[in-house]
Amino acid sequence: MTTKPLINYFEKFIPLNEEEKLIIEDIFKERKIKRKQFILQEGDICNQNTFIIEGCFRSYTVDDKGKEHNLQFAVENWWVGDIGSFHSEKPSKLNIEAIENSIILQCKKEDQIKLFVNYPKFDRIFRVLAENAIVSMQNRILQNISSTAEERYLDFVERFPHFFNRISNVQIASYLGVTPEFLSAIRKKIVES
Questions:
Q1: Residue 1 pLDDT more than 60?
Q2: Mean pLDDT of the chain
Q3: Fewest CB atoms less than 10 Å from the CB: which of 18, 89, 93, 151?
Q4: pLDDT band at 25 (very low <50, low <70, confident <90, very high)
Q5: What is the pLDDT of residues 53-97, one digit of tens each?
Q6: Would you say 62 and 42 are in contact if contact means Cβ atoms under 8 Å apart?
Q7: How many other C-beta atoms lie within 10 A of the C-beta of residue 65?
Q8: pLDDT cut 90: percent of the chain above it
Q9: pTM here?
Q10: 186 contacts 150 by C-beta, under 8 angstroms
Q11: Which residues pair with 52 in a beta bridge?
């Protein structure tokens, strides 16, 4: 099983002892996911926390007119899921789809709760992860309400240069809240300046 990247990830926060490493191997299950395969679809309950070992995913919703709105992209050493559905056990409004063939590790909610209760280090680690996610979400909301599309694009390029060969321009445009044509115009303007 490929839990070594996850163990290394956790140890960036707090060193783990052998028992803690073994419990990771026990409760996180490896899955191979094909490109365009879903790990969550709208209406399903998100009952697994997902860590990406290899590959790329997108989290998105579809509005009443059938337009997709990308909320998140996630690659190696990132987590992806619907935290609202995971905690409330209510149907998700999100779809999570593999953009590439991927390898993931998943942990069921009940196993994660046991992990927190029996191994407090993980409770602390996941609290920090949740806090980081909230900060990131706040920054994205502030940027969306106070920045131009060009500023949002430049920020995306700076923060996520590794996404460009993995994610289509249509998906990037959706994430930034612009049309693909508008994104092309922004990119052309930047290249010419």
A1: no
A2: 93
A3: 18
A4: very high
A5: 999 999 999 999 999 999 999 999 999 999 999 999 999 999 999
A6: yes
A7: 5
A8: 82
A9: 0.91
A10: yes
A11: 104
Would you give the end-to-end CA distance of the chain in angstroms? 49
Q: Which of 143, 145, 153, 140 is nearest to 184 (CA)?
A: 153
- For residues 76 and 55, the answer to whether their CB atoms sit within 8 Å is yes
3-state secondary structure the chain: CCCHHHHHHHHCCCCCCHHHHHHHHHHCEEEEECCCCEEECCCCCCCEEEEEEECEEEEEEECCCCCEEEEEEEECCCEECCHHHHHHCCCCCCEEEECCCEEEEEEEHHHHHHHHHHCHHHHHHHHHHHHHHHHHHHHHHHHHHHCCHHHHHHHHHHHCHHHCCCCCHHHHHHHHCCCHHHHHHHHHHHHHC
What does the block give as tokens for 180?
A: 């693909």
User: Vertex 135, ends 130 and 141: CA angle to 5°?
Assistant: 125
What domains can be seen in the chain, in order of their start residue? 4-118 (2.60.120.10)
> Strand 79-80 vs strand 38-40: parallel, antiparallel, or unpaired?
unpaired
- One-letter amino acid identity for 92? S
Name the CA radius of gyration of the chain, rounded.
18
Q: What is the mean pLDDT of residues 130-142?
A: 92
